[in-house]
Amino acid sequence: MKVTAENRADSSKSFAVQVTFKDADGKLLDTVVTKVSGVPAGTSKDATARSTHKLDGDDVKADVTTALRY
Question: What pTM did the predictor assign?
Fold first, then answer.
């Protein structure tokens, strides 16, 4: 899953983004945390959240559950 961190601060920041993967029934399949490091002030930067499990099918849904700027 592609995630985009937008830095609205006036200095460079990094982000930790938690993504959950669920099946069509809402069953939790995996949770991952992706770092987006060194996002310059007033810009955005992309990263990719990847599961460590084989997640097959079109029924898998990925959602950002938490994002933390540091």
Answer: 0.88
Q: For residue range 23-69, what is the model confidence (pLDDT) as tens digits?
A: 999 999 999 999 999 999 999 999 999 999 998 777 999 999 999 99
Count of H-run helices and E-run strands, the chain: 0, 5
The one-letter amino acid at 66: T
Q: Quick one: which of 67, 51, 49, 66 has its CA closest to 6? A: 67
In sequence order, the 6+-apart residues with CB closer than 8 A to the CB of 53 are 29, 30
- The DSSP 8-state label assigned to residue 57 in this structure reads S
